[in-house]
Amino acid sequence: RLVADDGGFAIDVTLRPLKPPVLNGINGLSQKSSDPGNASYYYSITRLQTQGRIRIDDEEFSVSGLSWLDREWSTSALADNQVGWDWFALQLSDGSDLMFYGLRLTDGTQDPQSAGTFIAADGSSTHLYREDVDVTELDTWDSPEGGAYPSLWRVRVPRFGLDVTVTPVIADQELFTTVRYWEGAVDVEGRRDGESISGRRYVELSGYAR
Fold this sequence. Notes:
The structure is a single chain. The chain has 210 residues and is mainly β. The protein is built from no helices and 16 strands.
């Protein structure tokens, strides 16, 4: 059960797993750079049936949908030669899910330790290496606070016949916490093994604005 209330907004929902936890990386150890110490223990529950209520000011709404839980434990963040990451978590209409993080280096290339997980509809999972996933940036969004973020992508996983376009639901989903980053809802449209597929979930982007 997830409950929160800050006066102007409140949420009270129950979340029930539809798939077992997935250990990301190799047996749950997710390497984030070539430095052996730069890693995290990382698991996901990629589908949680969610139902409850939210309140915005004085108006209440009944809500239902699918949620995604990520948990990580780490002693470090980025390596000295890394500037940020592009993190995708996608729930697809055929029951499968995709997680992939692309770690960006200071020279503009992608770190070889970029990786992900493909989770089939039956809950079985496959570790994905950097060469398994191709992400192409198709458009950008300029923040009114300065800086530009990718804002439209083509994501391909040939190993699983997946070729989709990922589009932000709202362009401005920039967050200001201890660091500036973009994290928000996205829509997914494309094909898998020649059949139409759709989906939704989120993308997280860091290191594009200071």
